[in-house]
């Protein structure tokens, strides 16, 4: 499905959402400090950073929910205004629904606020409730639902009007594995349909599975951004070496300019300085015992994250 | 009486009809451009230009995006409020109270009481029939009828009085004296309120005591029976006043209107405050404000609750007027129709003015328990207006200060209908007060939207007014 106005298939280079030099101070606290990044349409982009890095403030800025000291948010090259925002979907960090309103009516109301006719809003509400397994709870009040189901309703509220941009603040928080899988599948499907998806999370393993690209920020500044594959392939080489009978990789610790990042049941994960010849490492391993595993590995997203923040 | 009720019923019917038409047309309009979600995806881009929050206020502008969104918010509010059990039961209770206030006086008036008068110690003959004739005349003058019973002794008559079989005993011996069971309420000599009016029996007994006293005096002065009768029936000389006679004041209608307007303003303003606070504390506000502007969200809430309030008031007013007409109550005499109309108008104006303030206050609350503390200072002007009005209704004496309060938007909703009921204000004075109220409402609404916009997403602590004063930037939590 090609979306009107979104260069979904024009390649990854043209970002649909552009955040330019955002700055926001709250008194003595600098929440955003000249933050800039872009997210392409048709991508699921993870938005990472420690608590207080400015993720929520950035997401709020996309929806005009916080005043900015400087900077602009652009969508397909134009400054984001009311019309654009009506085509965005938002799931805030602190979930928000009317506790005593019925699930279906709540979704219909939000659909109408995004410009849907009553019948279209009703059809979309039922479609999403069915998709998320909540058809039987359509006439329940929100407060009577479990935490996980409330989360699903909140996601339906963000997706209902088939947005061009989805911004989700920690959508995976507090979900069980089936819930995470369900939401992950929905996000991937939305991106496949050309939607631009930006979501924040602290669950780095899940983000690595779900996202094609990530943006990492700290203290309101960008520290790393790009495709997960590129970020994982970049940086120092990683070797995984397993020597039979070796438990603590003591042999590797004697090699200069090689650090042991972890030893997992006999498999030593080594970080190599660019000047180190991997053959030297192999020889050292063979000297220590019978080598049963030897291979280069990508960086994990968690390693990318920690190295970016370091 | 029926002449008075007909225009009110027509107005209510017209308002209901117009509201249904508007809702239906709005639904048709929003249905037509998009028939499915894919259509909506393409269709929204060409919607009309964006206006500022203040343009959202005239609810009639359903054609614009601002009007449409404001109406969507208002419609949800109306739907959810009408569904509430407290609202339904409350409306029924108010209807029952109004029905009782109208029907009970009519029912008690409907059974004319025959005054039972015992006569003691009067010799049979002409003198007795003369007293009977005078007492009968007094009964006729006070709008009642009389039946005479001859009692053998004062003791017997007292027993009959005590048991309630007699209303009055006339004892003749040396002079005439009257005995009643309970002390009678003195009939009004100055403008006492209709709420403490003496009963018919009290008025009758009072008249009899005056008549018989005068009769004794005339006889003592040596007048013949005929002369005494002429003096006793002397008519007053006519009085001509320079000012036209004021219309009969509508005490009961004014009082009912005052109580209703106070209860409804308190109730619906609290709804607005608590409703905004609920949207803030449940964080739904952040989801809503990602889609629509704050001015429209708050305007929709104010409009929705206002329409529920006005609908309820119109229903109560129509029920009161209809019932009063049907049972022949004198509630709608004098200035009462004007009081009813001005009560409805001031309910709208009073709500329009104060609801914005309450909405802004609601956006500053962090928790539910702060609602009371925020509402109390806002209620003070209403309390002043209410109690002042009640005092004036009770004494019937107004003052310049009271007249001034009739022009101040916070107190005018209570004071103006009372002034109308007393016949103290001309139509143009009502219009001036209404205009002042409307202009102040516009200013207050702008201010309130500014406060609301700055505080609705500011969580973590109760927002202070100086943090959100429009035009200033203050630190806030992230």
Write a structural description.
- The complex is a heterodimer of chains A (310) and B (478).
- Chain A contains eleven helices and 14 strands.
- Chain A has 310 residues and is α/β, with parallel strands linked by helices.
- In chain A, strands 6-7-8-3-9-10 form a six-stranded mixed beta sheet, with helices on both faces. Chain A has a four-stranded antiparallel beta sheet with strand order 2-1-4-5, covered by helices on one side. Chain A has a four-stranded antiparallel beta sheet with strand order 12-13-11-14, covered by helices on one side.
- In chain A, helix 6 links the parallel strand 7 and strand 8.
- Chain A is elongated.
- The N terminus of chain A is likely disordered.
- Chain B is mainly α and 478 residues long.
- In chain B, 37% of the residues are buried.
- The longest helix of chain B is centred in the middle third of the chain and has 34 residues.
- The chains are: A alpha/beta (310), B mainly alpha (478).
- The interface between A and B is large, with 50 and 47 residues.
Number of strands of chain A: 14
- Main sheet makeup of chain B: 4 strands, mixed
Radius of gyration of chain A: 23 Å
SSE order of chain A, as H and E?
EEEHEEHEHHHEHEHEEHEHEEHEH
The rounded distance between the terminal residues' Cα atoms of chain A is 41 Å
* H and E string of chain B: HHHHEHEHEEHHHHHHHHHHH
Give a quick summary of the entry.
Chain A is of the alpha/beta class and 310 residues long.
Set out the fold topology.
The complex is a heterodimer of chains A (310) and B (478).
Chain A: E1 15-26, E2 29-40, E3 44-48, H1 55-62, E4 70-75, E5 78-79, H2 82-85, E6 88-91, H3 103-113, H4 118-131, H5 147-159, E7 165-169, H6 177-192, E8 196-200, H7 204-210, E9 213-218, E10 221-227, H8 228-233, E11 237-243, H9 250-253, E12 258-264, E13 267-272, H10 278-288, E14 291-297, H11 301-309
Helix pairs in contact in A: 3-4
Chain B: H1 2-31, H2 37-43, H3 65-83, H4 85-110, E1 114-120, H5 126-141, E2 145-151, H6 154-162, E3 168-173, E4 175-179, H7 200-220, H8 225-232, H9 251-281, H10 284-289, H11 294-327, H12 336-362, H13 370-395, H14 400-405, H15 412-422, H16 427-455, H17 465-468
Parallel strand pairs in B: 1-2, 1-3
Antiparallel strand pairs in B: 3-4
Helix pairs in contact in B: 1-11, 3-11, 4-11, 5-7, 7-8, 9-11, 9-12, 9-13, 9-15, 11-12, 11-16, 12-13, 12-15, 12-16, 13-15
């Amino acid at each position: 499905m090609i979306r009107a106005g979104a260069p979904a298939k024009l390649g990854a280079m043209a970002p649909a959402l552009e955040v330019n030099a955002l700055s926001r101070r709250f008194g003595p606290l600098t929440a955003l400090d000249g933050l800039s990044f872009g997210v392409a349409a048709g991508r699921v982009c993870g938005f990472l950073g420690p608590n207080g890095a400015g993720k929520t403030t950035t997401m709020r800025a996309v929806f005009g929910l916080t005043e900015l000291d400087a900077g602009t948010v652009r969508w397909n090259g134009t400054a984001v205004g009311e019309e654009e925002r009506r085509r965005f979907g938002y799931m805030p960090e602190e979930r928000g629904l009317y506790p005593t309103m019925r699930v279906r009516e709540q979704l219909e109301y939000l659909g109408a606020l995004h410009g849907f006719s009553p019948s279209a809003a009703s059809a979309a509400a039922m479609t999403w409730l069915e998709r998320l397994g909540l058809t039987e709870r359509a006439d329940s009040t929100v407060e009577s639902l479990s935490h996980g189901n409330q989360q699903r309703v909140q996601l339906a509220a963000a997706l209902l009007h088939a947005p061009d941009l989805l911004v989700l603040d920690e959508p995976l928080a507090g979900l069980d594995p089936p819930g995470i899988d369900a939401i992950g599948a929905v996000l991937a499907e939305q991106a496949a349909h050309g939607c631009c998806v930006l979501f924040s999370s602290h669950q780095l393993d899940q983000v690595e599975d779900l996202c094609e690209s990530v943006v990492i920020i700290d203290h309101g500044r960008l520290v790393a951004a790009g495709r997960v594959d590129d970020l994982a392939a970049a940086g120092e080489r990683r070797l995984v070496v397993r020597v039979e009978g070796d438990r603590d990789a003591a042999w590797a610790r004697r090699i200069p300019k090689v650090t042991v990042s972890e030893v997992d049941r006999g498999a030593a994960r080594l970080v190599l300085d660019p000047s180190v010849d991997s053959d030297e490492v192999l020889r050292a391993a063979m000297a220590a015992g019978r080598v049963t595993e030897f291979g280069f590995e990508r960086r994990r997203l968690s390693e990318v994250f920690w190295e970016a923040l370091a | 009486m029926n002449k008075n009720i007909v225009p009110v019923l027509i107005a209510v019917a017209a308002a209901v009809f117009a509201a249904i038409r508007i809702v239906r047309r709005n639904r048709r309009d929003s249905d037509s451009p998009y028939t499915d979600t894919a259509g909506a995806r393409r269709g929204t881009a060409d919607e009309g230009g964006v206006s500022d929050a203040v343009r959202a206020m005239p609810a009639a502008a359903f054609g614009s995006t601002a009007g449409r969104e404001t109406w969507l918010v208002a419609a949800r509010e109306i739907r959810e409020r009408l569904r509430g059990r407290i609202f339904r039961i409350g409306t029924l209770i108010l209807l029952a109270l109004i029905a009782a206030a109208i029907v009970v006086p009519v029912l008690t008036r409907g059974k004319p009481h025959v005054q039972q008068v015992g006569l003691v110690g009067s010799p049979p003959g002409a003198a007795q029939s003369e007293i009977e004739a005078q007492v009968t005349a007094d009964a006729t003058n006070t709008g009642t009828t009389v039946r005479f019973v001859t009692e053998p002794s004062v003791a017997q008559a007292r027993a009959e009085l005590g048991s309630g079989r007699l209303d009055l005993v006339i004892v003749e011996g040396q002079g005439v004296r009257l005995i009643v069971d309970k002390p009678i309420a003195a009939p009004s000599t100055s403008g006492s309120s209709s709420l403490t009016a003496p009963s018919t029996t009290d008025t009758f007994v009072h008249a009899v005591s005056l008549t018989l006293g005068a009769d004794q005096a005339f006889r003592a002065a040596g007048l013949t029976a005929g002369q005494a009768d002429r003096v006793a029936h002397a008519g007053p000389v006519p009085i001509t006043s320079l000012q036209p006679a004021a219309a009969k004041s509508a005490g009961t209608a004014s009082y009912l209107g005052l109580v209703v307007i106070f209860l409804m303003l308190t109730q619906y303003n609290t709804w607005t405050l608590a409703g905004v606070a609920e949207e803030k504390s449940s964080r739904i506000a952040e989801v809503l404000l990602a889609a629509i502007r704050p001015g429209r969200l708050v305007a929709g809430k104010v409009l929705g609750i206002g329409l529920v309030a006005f609908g309820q008031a119109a229903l109560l007013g129509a029920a009161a007027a209809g019932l009063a007409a049907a049972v022949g109550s004198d509630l709608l005499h004098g200035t009462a129709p004007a009081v009813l109309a001005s009560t409805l108008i001031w309910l709208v104006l009073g709500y329009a003015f104060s609801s914005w303030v309450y909405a802004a206050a609601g956006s500053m609350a962090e928790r539910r328990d702060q609602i009371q503390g925020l509402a109390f200072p806002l209620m003070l002007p209403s309390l002043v207006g209410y109690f002042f009005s009640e005092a004036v209704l009770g004494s019937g004496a107004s003052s310049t200060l009271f007249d001034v309060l009739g022009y101040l938007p916070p107190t005018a909703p209570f004071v103006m209908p009372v002034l109308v009921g007393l016949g103290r204000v001309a139509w143009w004075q009502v219009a001036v007060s209404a205009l002042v109220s409307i202009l102040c409402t516009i200013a207050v609404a702008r201010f309130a939207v500014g406060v609301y916009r700055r505080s609705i997403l500011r969580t973590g602590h109760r927002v202070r007014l100086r943090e959100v004063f429009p035009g200033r930037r203050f630190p806030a939590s992230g």
